[in-house]
Amino acid sequence: MPASFQILGTGQLLELQRRLRAAGHENLRSSMQRRLRRAAEPLKDSMVSGIQSMPLTADGRKAGKRGGRSPTTRPLRASVAAAVRISVRTAGAPGARVWLDSARLPGDLKKIPFPLLASPNGRLRHPVFGNRKRWANQWTTPMFWDKQIRAHTPRMTAEVARVVDDVRRRIE
Prior knowledge:
The chain is an alpha+beta fold. It has helices at 10-23, 26-53, 76-81, 113-118, 144-171; strands at residues 4-7, 57-58, 84-89, 95-100, 123-128, 131-139. The chain is 48% helix and 19% strand. The chain has a 3-stranded antiparallel sheet with strand order 1-4-3, covered by helices on one side. The chain has a 3-stranded antiparallel sheet with strand order 2-6-5, with no helix packed on it. α1 (10-23) packs parallel to α5 (144-171). The longest helix has 28 residues, at 26-53. The mean pLDDT is 77.
């Protein structure tokens, strides 16, 4: 499962970055970064809205088992959606990257998003409130992250190519 998605036209972007640096056009570079970020924003927005509306169902309680309300009020979907980030680089490994920043998740949720978003069968198995003797299954849409990326890749690739061509035209 890709934990992040990157659009890299490394050859074109590296050449363009060298030309920008040589020409000293700082405003062109910042404009290119802004446009690359804008190209990645629809994917980020789609990821956030998809995570927030993702169906997440649990197996029913077994007969004779106790249960009750969750001891935490923190919503899982909102916490995961808030951790989706965009980063744009024009130096080193240039490109636009949409990724899930696990550092922005609460400590007990750091490992949950990856199986939740990329499980081939849509299954998330976890201990019940941290009790490693009792486990529960939750089900969601399988391979959610990959489907979102595939849907947005052609548009983002075309937009990045258009940005690179526009900046190249302005330099020459």
